[in-house]
Amino acid sequence: MPFSVLGVLARLGLTALATYSGDSIFPLAYVQTTGCLIMGFCLALKEPLSRYYPPAYTALTTGFCGSLTTFSGWQLDIFKSWLNSSDAHRSALSDVMDGLGKSVFTISLSLASLFFGMHLADQVSPYFHAAPPPGKFLRRTVSVLAVCIYAATIPAYLLLPRNYRHQVTAALLFSFPGTLTRYLLSTRLNAVLPSFPLGTYAANSFGTALLGTFHVLQSTANHPLSPASCTMLQGLGDGYCGCLTTISTFAAEIAALKTAGHKYRYALTTYLSGQLILVCIFGALLWVGDIVRNQTCTFN
Fold it and tell me: Is residue 294, in this structure, part of any structural domain at all?
């Protein structure tokens, strides 16, 4: 619970920090790189972390890294590049180059960061000595604090300024449900096909479909939504979909698959599925003019 909340906060904070006029690197690159770096570091230290306290490893990888990185946001960002949703003065070929750049660079940066994180962990592992496992009292205290941290997202949403809701507090409400859905899908389905992590594929595809749907609702041309509805959709997109989908686990699974054929099949199938899903959701509505390329939602 708390690491899902922290992952969303880190993702939104990094995205805001990296969003500025004239930026030369797209904001999500920082998010995916950071999450995969931490994921690689934790993967290399899985044994001592699990020996100390097994939930700590799950919290750091599935909870924090999985919530920090986002597959659905990456897919939507690529799709918006194909559409030139920023209305930049450029040719169709430039649209293609923009989408391809975000595709290739994200995969490259994610895998490079994953392996660099593993390298850093190898350097510190000789000095890493796991402490004795925590006692029953400490475990129970941590569990209570975890629930309290997630429960605090409700008063944070209600009591903090209204303009914070669409920016962050609405997303915090839906953070843990998204992470829990991904965790359950992975534990139930990943073992079905050892050469194709079906659970992560289902989470990434389903989350991308949901995010595309929420974005369509936020871009209606004829019947704009109320500010409250727009805030909830933004929270679901940033919180639930952002935590349901993950690049860090996706990159780790690509690296862990045994053969090159399995790696390419999994990577390409997941990527193409995401883009095809968005084409199906956006395509017909864009062609008939029911939605526009940019969001029509307002939050005030």
Answer: no
